[in-house]
Structures are given as structure tokens and as C-alpha cells.
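Progress against Task 2.4 (sequence-to-structure conversion) is shown through the following example record, which the project officer requested during the mid-term review.
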Amino acid sequence: MFLQQVDITKDSFVTDIVKLDYRAANVFRKYDIEFCCGGRWPLGLVCETKDLNFISLKNELQDSFRNIKLSNTIEFHKWNIDFLIDYIINIHHNYLLNTLPVLWVELKDFAEEHSSTDPKMGELLSPYSQLQKEGILHIRYEEEVIFPYLRQVAHAYHNKDSFASLLVKTLRKPIKKFLEEEHEIFTNNIHKFRTLTNNYTPPEGACTHHKVVLSQLLELDNDLAQHIRLEKDILFPRVIEIEKELLEQNNNPS
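C-alpha cells generated for the chain above:
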């Protein structure tokens, strides 16, 4: 089936629903519903206690289970540069801006509550804090400086503007250096996440909350991998080639 519905009834226990799909935790957190060790309550009773509509909550939970997958046949390298930049901003940048602050609170709370059972989770706080702080600054700089430059160059090149080569010569940004900084911010810290969590593998006897946090970190890892690939392997190389061609035209005018 295109979308497999998870069977949720009023008798379903909250913690069991989260075990079926970690993303349900975001919905329960929204309504201040305990989903870990204290979540052994049937959903119907929870709705009565919280004065929530069961059908509405059920629909919201099922929406959170949706898997949106992209076909491997999508040819990102053929996309218009403006469209590719818009995709990166709306999909990957927005994901990070929405996820990083929320997951930071979740990770910090979990590390404080479970420091005795899994000390390594506390060691994640430093690299995560660095990734969040520098990553958000990086995104802002990319959207305010780098991306507008890439759009200008691509637009001038494809429209054969007479000032295209001059634009590159006077406004050229250190894309290669920027890309290296991006790798240092994201890749190095993600590598620490993988090492400290044994590639996001829950330890024996891990509680539901622990598994949720690890799943959320894995989701972040996967999104960053795709994000970096689109920029490193597709977007930046294409614009660098345009820069190179325009500079050559500038140095060898016909």
C-alpha cells in the first residue's frame, strides 16, 4: 500500500504507539502526554483526562507516521539552479531550523534524567550545541550571502548578460572555503554522534524515551547527509563551473 495505516484504538497504550513509530512522540509531547515509562495508559482514557478529541488525536498521530520518500531516479543535477536552491531552503534548511532547537531541549532533558544509566548521552551535548549554534549561523549566511550570489551568477550566465563575467570577477565568493567550513560544522559533529551512540543503536534495556531520542538523531543525520550531498556534489560544482567559464571569457574576450 502507498500508505499503511497504523491501527490505533482507544485501548492502545501510549507507549506502545511510540514503539510502533518514534514520531508519535512529537504529537504526545505537544499535548503534554507522557509516552515513556509512565505511558502505560490507554489512549481513550488519556483523551478523557486531557479533554482531547480521540478521532482528532488519532488522525494527527497517523499523519505523523507518513513516510515521504523521493525516487532514486530524480535528477537533481538537471534542476534549474534557482529551483534547487529553493528546494534546499524549504526542505533542508527549514527542517534544521525547526528541529535543532526542539531536539536540543529533548536531548538535554534526557541526558540529565538518565546520566547514570547512559553517561555517553551527556557527552553528546557539547557537539550538538556546537552543531546547533554554528549550523544556524551557517544557514543564515548561506541564505543571505551565498545563495543570492549563486542566483545572480546563474541568472546572468543563462541570460547571457553582458556584465556576467564582471559580476564573477567583482563579487566572487570563496565557495570552496565555505564548503570546507560546512563539512567541519556538520560532518565532524555528526561523526561524534555516531561514535557516542554506536550508530544510534539503543543499548540493552533502553527505555522508550531513549529510543525516541536516538531515532530523532538518526533522522537528523540522514537529512544532513542529503542536504550536504545536494550542495557539495550538485549545486556548488555547477556554479563553480559557471564561474570558471565566465572568468575564462573575461580573460579571453573575443
